[in-house]
Amino acid sequence: MGLRIGDKAPDFKQESSEGTINFHEWAGDNWVVLFSHPADFTPVCTTELGATANLKAEFEKRGAKAIAVSVDPVESHKGWIGDINETQNTTVNFPILADENRTVAELYDMIHPNEDDASTVRSVFIIDPNKKIRTMITYPKSTGRNFNEVVRVIDSLQLTDNYSVATPANWNDGEDVIILPSITDPDVIKEKFPKGHKELRPYLRVTPQPNR
Ligand code: BEZ
Questions:
Q1: What is the pLDDT of residues 96-110, one digit of tens each?
Q2: Which domains does the chain have, with CATH numbers?
């Protein structure tokens, strides 16, 4: 059975562009964005890894760090990093796992044989500090991901954990959020949401973003 949201993120030991990674130890108390890409020296992947490197400060603000994976070897990753840095005007600042033996790809079901049986598709796993999988996103090889969306999802998850709210469709940081349906006690609502709330329906209660 494949992994699901809420499952414990499998631990692994694998080589990377920054040396051997023991995944859980490397993750520490951080949120982690573990993402696969099909291959080194390919155009879409080059832009994706550049975009991720350029978001390092945003990840850090959220206590998150990124780690990439493909089935190419360490030497290939190291050669490709020079191209990413030069063409995407960045410095790759996170490890790229060299999953030649497919340890990670198999644990996380990143190879979808009807797309390609030799390399990983574009999977994203957002993992919380308790090592729980909180989000899974899968894109085909030909579509580069929106890494600002990954940051937006981390914001949403952290709001849920810290303030008992959910985020509505197309929500962006700073916009109103939704009080979790499980919060029903009026006294608790008053205490948790001092900025007030609007009840559009008993199940649809919106409140200003609590951490703004
Ligand atoms: C790319 O990264 O550019 C790519 C890889 C495989 C198929 C299509 C595009």
A1: 999 999 999 999 999
A2: 13-144 (3.40.30.10), 163-207 (no CATH)
